Structure formats: C-alpha cells, structure tokens
C-alpha cells in the first residue's frame, strides 16, 4: 500500500470525523524514514514525533528540542513530505488545500490512521515498549498468497485501482443501523441524536488503539491498551470518558471493505 494510498484513506477518515484535511500531512510522518519506523510506529513515541512535525511545518512551536532525532530526521525529509502532501491535495481535487493544519488532536488522528493502515501490509509493534507483540491482519494474510500480495503492492496500477475503489466506497457515507447496537447503547445514541452526526475524532483515536490491541498476536493484555490510551490522551488534553460505540462499528465495517477490495484487486 503506497504512502499516497494510505494518505487518501486517512483524508477520507478525517472527513468522516469532521476534521480539517489540512492535517493530513501528518499521515506521512510515521513512514517517511524506513530506518526509524520501529520508533515512529510506536504509540508511546507519538507525542515527541508529532510535536516535532508541528514545529517543523507550522508556526506553532510545541516544546520540542530541535536537537531531538525526530526533528532533525524530518527536517532532512521536509521537501519529500511536502511533495507527498501536495500530491494528496491534487488527487482529492483540493488544489487550493496547501495550508498545513496544527490542531494536535486532528494531527494525531491523521498520524495514527497511517500506522493503522500499515497493519494491512506488515506487522506493527504498536505498543512498544510496553509490549513487543505485533498488530497485523493475520487472518487476511492467511487467506491469500502473501508473497503475491507483496509483489502486487509494488504495482502502480494495483495501488491506483485499490485507491480509486476505496475513495468511492459507500463506507464513507456513514449510515448506522440502530439494531447493530445493544439496547442500552441504542437509547444513548437516540437521546444524544448521534446516529446522523460526524464521528468523534477523539473517540476514533481511542477506537483505533483498541482495534490495534485486538489485532495483536499473541494476545495483548487490555491493561496495556488502556494505559496507552490514557498516556496519549494526557498528551492530547482529553479528560472526558469517551464512548466508542459508533467508531468501533465504523472501523469494523471499514476493515471488511478494505479486505474485500484488496482481495478483489488481487484477482484482477
């Protein structure tokens, strides 16, 4: 899955959460340097890496020492990241979308979605240093010729076909079936009139972290997942308890659509 492909998916997810797509530049940060991906794919390191990125690309200056390895590494790759960001803007028809966002919550969502989508092509040690267990799409890989899949990922036509299908997928026109939720959740969704509202970006981040834990092999203890959520939300300044019923249902459906579309593209 090319970086542009993951970025388009991230843009669609940002839009589904009512976020400014100018924050989509941060989707490239975790993957721009293969040599340090072990660190940039770790949720524990996200605050330092993200603050370095915001400091580099915007006028907002978080408390990030410029000698920090993440800042100097991104400085070396600044032109490449900006070129990729411009490519995304052109691809989605937002030629005027050149302003770079600096909203920490939305930037974190963009960053974390990139790591999430990377799990379709490689195992990711997302919970380092608390757990070395890898998150990945094990059942999907077992159901296909994995080596043929990796070869296909190098093909521009394959990536373009998958990207086009997913960009137009019905999943982004979010419609929830109330009967999919337990009765107590149904009452809350109706009371708060959430069925037709945009997904919550903070809840989406929490849901993604939970899903990363669920896709871990071997099993990742929920204490590690829960601590990781709390640690990140302390950085983001999110103090409220967040419900993730809609966001989890959306991610499960999105996973199904991505896997189905990948398999269809593999058969071509």
Features:
13 helices; 1% strand; 2 strands; 268 residues; mainly alpha
Describe this entry's structure for a reader.
The protein is mostly helical and 268 residues long. The protein has 13 helices and two strands, in the order ααααααβαααααβαα. It has one domain (3-267). It has helices spanning 3-16, 37-40, 46-57, 69-76, 78-91, 104-118, 138-142, 146-152, 156-167, 183-191, 201-214, 222-236, 245-267, and strands at residues 134-135, 216-217. A two-stranded antiparallel ribbon has the order 1-2. The longest helix has 23 residues, at 245-267. It is globular and about 55 Å long. The mean pLDDT is 89.
Task: Describe what is shown at a glance.
This protein is mainly alpha-helical.
In terms of topology, how is this protein built?
Layout: H1 3-16, H2 37-40, H3 46-57, H4 69-76, H5 78-91, H6 104-118, E1 134-135, H7 138-142, H8 146-152, H9 156-167, H10 183-191, H11 201-214, E2 216-217, H12 222-236, H13 245-267
Antiparallel strand pairs: 1-2
The tally of beta strands, per DSSP, is 2
Number of domains: 1
**Helix share bin:** 55-70%
Computed over alpha carbons, the radius of gyration is: 18 Å
Biggest sheet architecture: 2 strands, antiparallel
Instruction: Quote the beta fraction.
Output: under 5%
Number of helices: 13
Find the structural class using helix and strand composition: mainly alpha
Low-confidence stretches: none
Mean residue pLDDT: 89
User: Whole-Å distance between the termini?
Assistant: 16 Å
Shape: globular
Oligomer designation: single chain
